[in-house]
Amino acid sequence: MEIDQCLLESLPFGQRQRLVRRMRCDQIREYYEREKTLQKPGGGVKVKAPPTSHMKKHRIRFSLGDIIQDAIIRHDDKEVLRLLKERADPKTTISSGGSLLHLCARHDNVFAAEVLIERGLNVNLQDEDLWTALHIACVCDHADMVLLLLLTGVNVLLQDVNGNIPLDYATEGTETSYILRKHLEENGIDVSSMHTMRTQRPSTMLSDVRQLVSSGVSLNQRNNDGVTLLHIACASGYREVVSVLLEDGADPQPSDNGYWTPLHLAAKYGQVLSYHCTFTYPVVSDPQRESIAASDPIMAMLLRAEECWVERLKDPSVPPPPSDELILLPPPLPCSTPLSMSLSKRDSLLEKCAMFMCTCTKTMCGYYGNLCGVVLQVKLMPPAPNDDLASLSELTNSSLLYEMQKRFGNDQIYTYIGHILLLVNPNKELPIYSSLVSQLYLSSSGRLCSSLPPHIFSSAERAYHMMLQERRPQCFILSGESGSGKTEACKHIVRHLAVRSSPKGFSLEPRMNQVNCILEAFGHAKTTMNDNSSRVIKLLSLQYCDKRKTLLRARIYTYMLEKSRVAYLPRQQHNFNIFYLMAEGLSPEEKSALHLNNFVKCVCVCVRVCVRVRVRVCVCGV
Ligand SMILES: Nc1ncnc2c1ncn2[C@@H]1O[C@H](COP(=O)(O)OP(=O)(O)OP(=O)(O)O)[C@@H](O)[C@H]1O
């Protein structure tokens, strides 16, 4: 399926995503079909004879510089470390003239950036357009990267070719913008002084040029690269300087050593400068024009100027195009020029950003409103083809293990196998369980959002909708070895259901925590496998209310499994948590009243406590 680029660009983002995804699927299908025919004996093209021993094998070798770039883009941290160990040069230059740090900033690879900075990479390196890694991190709103760069002492006031500092590219209201503004404030720089600094350059150049004019020095002097004052003023968009130069007789169409005229530079850097000599410029051939014009309006402007120039060649009486039309063209978006991203790249960035845009906005609200200043971080991985192992083309033990390991390395701890959700215990805190993430997974129709990765919240959501559709209780079966994360998963399910059903301004979370404390005190104990192992069977059930056509309650039934643990302890194992909590927390008087001064007696008391307390907690109001 071929689709016109302009048409694709004009579609709304969601539609474009779906269309592009479909096109990718078609491409892959075609590819597999072609491969199949090629592999059939005698099918497809001629089968080449196997190479004889005297024939040289041709191998394509990529430089370490190329391989490390690829590893950074893929977030393959182990590979980055290996390549650096193998003497890949951390100072490798990328195609934009920037450093590997620029690449890390674009792909939000904080780990690789940290490693490279540790190995002495200069954080202030600028690419061809004088962008630092901080400019890129700001444009992409990669807050973690911005924080890292600030901590390592990046210069936040470095200007790019357009005279923009990184803050100019940070979208107002985003986390990045907040962090940068705070940093500037802490360093005694306010916005007005920044404004002065930015207007300083054109005004300094203007006064220098006026001085040159008054002293009668030629305005067409060139530096070693053949660059004139007009080149500089055009590239930087200093309109007043351009008018003074042209009015005072500067050559309007000098070429530098690379045959670039001031107009080429103005077009490349998106500077909308109208001056009357535009239409005296030679026609730029099509491919060249497309590659230099920073935006469509600028390309249209060049086209009009060219048409007029051609007409005036034939007939000099044709009037020049109205100059105000050129002046009034809107300036291009600030980030479109230096990044010059292809549509697919822009989409893949958008894919990442858009998915969590609403989370980020909400996070920012939480951020401003949070008096403790704790940032609620949300970091979900974008959806990937291996999100559902059932859809893999090869299903063997090793391929499944390989995929699981790969996902685990990227903190993608959840994976679908059809409708079953597989969890690999990360044994570390991941920022994927906040109520904001819960809200992301809420679905009004019951259909899960394909742009969100697998998550325990999506299973909870599915159970909720199944309950509504089937109008009968639903149950979760959490199975796995001790310490695999069943209890935690159960807590997350209940938390999600609480978020889904909480009335405004009423949070069930504190209640849930209190309930869990009681459950864990009486039903959990330290084992060799798990410091907080549940020695009970829990049944989590969702009950449907026919009248209200909604979830009546989520109930956790707890059945004590190991009463024997109270009286008999297996080697290296503990009693139920409540035993230690009482021994630690009670006052001496309370202890003596409960006969807890003596260790052996304590066991008897615990027997009584555990047998009497039937823990059946129900989280109502959901
Ligand atoms: N999703 C998770 N994110 C972070 N850490 C987790 C997660 N799941 C489990 N853990 C960690 O692993 C520990 C053990 O998990 P948990 O108690 O849920 O295991 P379990 O399967 O219920 O074990 P048992 O069968 O012995 O009760 C937890 O105390 C927690 O530190």
UniProtKB/TrEMBL annotation:
Residue stretches of each ANK repeat: 96-128, 129-161, 225-257
GO terms for MF: actin filament binding; ATP binding; cytoskeletal motor activity; protein phosphatase binding
Record's GO cellular component terms: myosin complex; nucleoplasm; perinuclear region of cytoplasm
Protein residues bound to ATP: 480-487
Gene Ontology BP, a term: phosphatidylinositol 3-kinase/protein kinase B signal transduction
Cited PROSITE patterns: ANK_REP_REGION (PS50297), ANK_REPEAT (PS50088), MYOSIN_MOTOR (PS51456)
Domain named Myosin motor: residues: 384-622
Name listed for the protein in its UniProt record: Myosin XVI
